[in-house]
Every structure is written in structure tokens, then in C-alpha cells.
Amino acid sequence: MASHRRPKQPSRARVTVLTATAAAAVAISAQAANAAPSEKPSKDEVKSKVDALYEQAEQATEKYNGAKEKQEKLQKEISTIQDNVARGQQDLNKLRDGIGSMAAGQYRTGGIDPSLQLFLSADPDDYLDKASTLDQVSGQQADGLKKIQDKQRELAQERAEAGAKLKDLSATRTELGNKKKEVQSKLTEAQKLLNSLTAQEKAALTAEQNRASRASERAALNSDTGNPGKISAGSGRAGAAFSAAQSKIGSAYVYGATGPSSFDCSGLTSWAYAQAGVSIPRTSESQANIGQRIYSQSQLQVGDLVFFYGDLHHVGLYAGNGQVLHAPHTGAVVRYEAIGNMPFQFGVRV
Q1: Element of type H or E holding 315
Q2: Distance, CA of 28 to CA of 20 (rounded, Å)
Q3: Residue 324 φ/ψ, nearest 5 degrees
Q4: 3-class SS of residue 344
Q5: H or E segment at 316?
Q6: What is the distance between the alpha carbons of residues 69 and 283, in angstroms, rounded to a whole number?
Q7: Which run of H or of E encompasses 114?
Q8: End-to-end CA gap in the chain
Q9: Which among 27, 175, 277, 336 would be 20 to 30 A from 231, CA to CA?
Q10: How far is residue 22 from each of residues 15, 27, 34, 216, 235, measured CA to CA in Å?
């Protein structure tokens, strides 16, 4: 017969622990339910973060431009060296063929001892004439051998130079790829932030930017040229470069672009000066070293290059009256902007 035992009751301590645990769980749930949702960043905060990302993207863009320029230069240099090596190898082959012909002729006539040849010769004078010619041939052969040695050394040096440049090209391509990824990463991050804004906030940001651009354009149009309503064309090639840049107002900023329909900052300045018949380097950092530096904004003239930020990663063209004409960043177009909106470093008169 089965025994009927009374179930063991939980201990007082265990009941206390379970009760406390349940109470804690209820409290946490209540806190979670009553907690305020995480605050969404304001329009101004988003703009500040996006501006910082655009600046970082532009820094990477100028590095990208430098790597791309170096890659193109290396490719041209390697191609030239390889052409030189190919021509040099043809010259070397001709020299070797010439030496081979001389050696074969000597072998055919030089198998008998010279004194015995003289003894057996029916015409000693004829033999002496031939011997003189043979000495000349030997001299030519020695000269030919020296030319072969010189050409071999030259080709070895050129091949070594080509090999070193090919390694440099490989490293440059890797750098180019890394900088491209960095730019794209910053732009993607900025776009995510912008997508977090409401349609109304986006419209407000666009309106602010348009108002600022119009104000800068009005300031430039009323510059200290003595002719309100008309921007000074500047003088000489700087003026021609500025006029070319003016014709591109409204063109989109695209990183790595050099025109004619889209630009990055140094792409615009290099394109504009090219229209004026002046070739300047591709990157802002290199452009900063091509002319007379001007540290006082009051001394700037229309068409001067103007540089911003400590690492000189941004450049534009001075438009007069404290304004700059430039390609600002992704999402913007070529436009006027107050020079004081960015940390001015100096100008350069090309």
C-alpha cells in the first residue's frame, strides 16, 4: 500500500528570495515602461555632425586625389622605361649579332699560325695587308664587346628602376583603394544622419544653406570694386580662372571630379586655371606651394587661391569682399561662401 506523505513546504528563506526577485522584476519592468525614449538629435546637432563628417571626407578625398595623381604619374614613367628597355634590348641584340659575325670570320681565317701563314703565302705583301685588316677587326670587336657590356649595365639599371616603380605603384593602388573606402564610409555615415531628419527638418536645412549662399553672392556682387552689382573679373590669368569658375556655379560636388560638369574643391581650382592656360597641381596641398603666399585677407585679389584648415585640405578662389567661390562638399554645389565660415590659412597668387 502506497504511503501518502505530506509534500514538503518551501523554507521561509526560499520564499523570501523568490518574493524579492519577483518584486525586483516588477520594478525593472515598471522603470522600462516609464522611461523616456532616447532623445532624437536636433536638426542643428545633425548638421554639426554631418559637417564634421563632410570635412573628414574631404580630407580623405585630397589624399585620394594625391594617390590617384601619383598612380597616373608612375604608370607613365613605367611605360616610358619599358619602352626604353625594349629598344635597348633590340640594340643589344644587334651588337651581339655584329660580334658574332666578326668572330665567325676570324674563326674561318685564323686557324693557322700567323708565322706559318706568312711562310706559305705566295704574296707576303698581300698577307701583311690582310694581317693589318685583321688587327683592325680585332679592335672593332673589342669596341663592340665594350658596347655590349655598357648596354647590359644600362638595361639592368632600367629594369631595376622599373621594378622599384612597379612596387611603388602597387602600394599606391592599395592606398588609393583605402582612401576611397574611407571617403565612402564618411559619406554613408553622413547620409544616415541626414535620413534621420524629418522632411520638414531637411527642408529647413536646405533653406538655411540657400539663404547663406544668396547672402554671400550678394556680398560678392557688391564688392569693393567700385562697381556695385558686378564682380570684378580680376586681372590677367587669375581673372580668367575666376570667370571660368563662375560659369560653373550650381555644378555638383563629386569627390575626385575635375570637371567639366562636377568638381571637388581642388578639382574646381585646377580646372579653372587650366581654362586660363595655366597648369597647376591637382591637390590643394600641392597648390599651396605654387606662388606667392598672402597671409592678410585685405591683400587678397579676385582669382587668388585661398586655403583653409591646418592641413590645407580645402581650397577655393577669392571672389572679393570677404567671399570665396568654391566646391564645398558632397551634397552641395559650386557656390559663394563667406571666407570667415572656414578657418582661413592664407592665399596664393599664382
Answers
A1: strand 314-320
A2: 12
A3: -130, 145
A4: strand
A5: strand 314-320
A6: 9
A7: helix 114-120
A8: 113
A9: 277
A10: 11, 9, 18, 65, 83
DSSP-derived secondary structure letter, 158? H
C-alpha cell at 319: 571672389
pLDDT digits (tens, 9 = 90+) for 244-301: 999 999 999 999 999 999 999 999 999 999 999 999 999 999 999 999 999 999 999 9
Cell of 236: 590677367
Three-state SS at 349: strand
Angstrom distance (rounded) from CA 110 to CA 141:
15
CB within 8 Å of 173: residues ≥ 6 apart: 71
Name the strand (E) or helix (H) holding 16.
Answer: helix 12-34
Spell out the per-residue pLDDT of the chain, length 350, in tens: 444 455 555 554 444 444 444 444 444 444 544 444 457 788 889 999 999 999 999 999 999 999 999 999 999 999 999 999 999 888 888 877 776 665 555 545 555 445 445 444 556 566 566 555 555 556 666 676 777 788 888 888 999 999 999 999 999 999 999 999 999 999 999 999 999 999 999 999 889 888 888 888 888 877 544 333 444 555 689 999 999 999 999 999 999 999 999 999 999 999 999 999 999 999 999 999 999 999 999 999 999 999 999 999 999 999 999 999 999 999 899 999 999 999 999 999 99
- Amino acid identity of residue 280, one-letter, is I
Residue with cell 516588477: 26
CA-based radius of gyration for the chain? 39
Tens digits of residue pLDDT in 151-174:
888 888 999 999 999 999 999 999
Give CB contacts under 8 A, 24+ apart, made by 174-180: 175/63, 175/67, 176/64, 176/67, 176/68, 176/71, 179/60, 179/61, 179/63, 179/64, 179/67, 180/64
233: how many CB neighbours lie within 10 A of its CB?
15
Active site (catalytic) residues: 265, 314, 326
The DSSP string of 84-99 is HHHHHHHHHHHHHHHH
CA nearest to 231, candidates 239, 346, 118, 203: 239
